[in-house]
Amino acid sequence: MKLLIKNGHVLNPATNLDRVMDILIEDGKVKTLKQSITNEECDRVIDANGLYVMPGFIDLHVHLREPGFEYKETIESGAKAAATGGFTSICPMPNTKPSTDCREMVELVMDKANKESVVHILPIGAITTNQEGSQLSDFKGMKEAGIVALSEDGKSVMDAALFMRGMQAAKKLNLPIFSHCEDKSLVGKGVMNAGKKAKEFGLEGICNAVEDVIVARDILIAKEPGCTLHLCHCSTKDSVTLVKMAKEMGLSVTAEVCPHHFSMSEDDITEDHGRFKMNPPLRKKEDVEALKKGLRDGIMDVIATDHAPHGQEEKNQSMAKAPFGIVGLETAFALTMTELVKKGYLTPMQMVEKLSYNPAKVLGIDKGNIDEGKVADIVIADFDREYQIDAKKFASKGKNTPFDGKMVTGQVVTTIVSGEVVYEN
Ligand code: DOR
Ligand code: ZN
Ligand code: ZN
Q1: C-alpha 416: how far from its chain's center?
Q2: How far apart are the C-alpha atoms of 138 and 155, rounded to whole Å?
C-alpha cells in the first residue's frame, strides 16, 4: 500500500518543519518527505492543499471503560472516537472493573486492542492492587505486557510512604508515574469548585488546595527517586506555579491541562446539571487564565482529554448525583484551536507540541514525529473550518459534554494510523 499526501502544510516540532511538503507513505512508514513527489505508482493520493499535516495526536489520558462498563465505552468505540478527534495513540487509565493492575489484565487489554482498535492503545497500569492504595501492583509484569506508565487515576495514593516506594520501583523500570492530585481528606463530599456557583446551588465545594497540596507533595516525593512524574489534569493557578518551581529545580516533572479546564470556568455553569461535573472541577477565571499562560510559556507541557464517558441517564442528573467526568476525544482539537490558537495563546507549532510531540516525549516513545523511516501516524486538519459541536454525532458511546452546541473553528479531516486511513471527514 502506497499513500501519497500532496501539498499539505506540514507542522513537525521534532524537526522544526513548518512548510508545504509531500509525504509518501509505504508499508506503514514515511518513505519520503520532500517538496514535490510525483504521483506514480501510488494506490492513493490525498490532496491536502490548504490543510495542515501533523504527527497524529497522542492522548496521555483517557478512560475506555472496558472491561466492566462497556455500556459507557469499549476499546473499540473509544478508539473510533480517538480517530475522529485526530488521535492516533491513546493511553487508557486502569480504573476499569477489574482494574488494569496485573500482567493478565494488561494482556487482555492489549489483545482486545489488537483485534478491535483502529488506533494504538498504550495502556497505563494501576500503582496499587485494585487501586485500593494498600499494596504495590506488579510493575514488572505489567511493563513486560506493554504498559507505558503507572497511575492511580480517579484518586491519589494517599499513603505517602507507599507512593515513594512506588516511585522508586517505577524509576528502576523507567516508567513514568501519572498523578491524579486529590487530597482525600480535603475533598470531603465536594462536587464542584468551591466558589460562587457552589454557594448559589447550595452544594459542597472542592477547594483548590485539594489539588495543590498533592501536586506539591508528589513533586517533593519524586525528587529523591528521580522518577518521571507527570501531573494529570492540572486545574489551579498554584499547580502552574508549583510545576514551574519543579522545573526550575531541575526535576523530571511534566504536566497536562485538559481542554475543558482552559475553555470554561465556573462562570460558564448555567445550571445544576451533571454535564458540568468533572474532577477536578471547572475553576475560577483566574485559574483558567493561569493555565492558558502556563501552556503558552512552556510550563504546562501536554494537552490531554481525560475522556470520561458515562451513560446518558447517569449524567442527566444534578451535580450532587451525577458521576464525575465528560467526554473529550472528539472536541479536544477544536477547543484547542478555538480557545488557544485562534486567541493567540499558542502558535500552531506549539499546539502540535502539546498534542503530539510532548506526549511522546513524556512516554519516551518514538512517535509524534513525521520523518523518513518513522511510523506514519498522521492527522490532517482544516484550521479554518467552522462547525457546531453535535454530541449526537460522536463516535464515542459517551455524549456527556458541556460543549454540545458550541461553535468552534478547526476540524480533523483525515486520520492515518500506521499508514492506514482510519477516519475521513
Ligand atoms: O472526571 C473524572 N472522571 N475524573 C477522574 O478523575 C476520573 C474520571 C472517570 O473515571 O470518570
Ligand atoms: Zn484523574
Ligand atoms: Zn482521568
Answers
A1: 18
A2: 19
Q: Give 43: exposed, middle or buried? Use CB within 10 Å, 0-12, 13-18, 19+.
A: exposed
- How high is the pLDDT of residue 331? 99
Pick from 245, 236, 246, 196: nearest CA to 212: 236
The grid coordinates of residue 59 equal 492522548
The verdict on whether 301 is a catalytic residue reads no
Angle ∠(32,415,421) on CA atoms, nearest 5: 70
- Is the per-residue pLDDT at 1 higher than 90? no
Confidence of residue 102 (pLDDT cuts 50, 70, 90): very high
Closest atom of ligand 1 to 63 CA is 10
Q: What is the model's pLDDT at position 328?
A: 98
Q: Roughly how many angstroms between the first and final C-alpha of the chain, as a whole number?
A: 21
Query: Cell numbers of 220, please?
Result: 517533593
Q: Across residues 400-411, what is the average pLDDT?
A: 98
What DSSP assignment string belongs to 247-315? HHTT--EEEEE-HHHHH--GGG--SS-GGG--SSPP--HHHHHHHHHHHHTTSS-EE---B----HHHH
The whole-angstrom separation of Cα 388 and Cα 405 is 6
Nearest residue (CA) to ligand 1, atom 5: 154
Which of 306, 314, 326 has most ligand 1 atoms within 8 Å of CB, for mutation? 306
418 closest CA partner among 70, 129, 26: 26
Q: From the centroid of its chain, how far is CA 252?
A: 19
The two beta strands, 87-92 and 120-121, are parallel
Distance 39 CA to ligand 2 centre (A): 47
For the stretch 131-179, pLDDT in tens is 999 999 999 999 999 999 999 999 999 999 999 999 999 999 999 999 9
* Residue 376 to residues 1, 38, 141, 330, 350, Cα–Cα distance (Å): 12, 19, 29, 21, 21
- Is 245 in contact with 215 (CB distance < 8 Å)? no
* Ligand 1 atom closest to the CA of 308, numbered from 1: 11
237-248 vs 285-296: helix crossing angle, rounded to 10: 30
Kindly list the protein residues whose Cβ atom lies closer than 6 A to any atom of ligand 1. Answer: 63, 95, 153-154, 180, 278-279, 306, 308, 324-325
Over residues 196-222, the mean pLDDT reads 98
Tell me the one-letter amino acid at 242: L
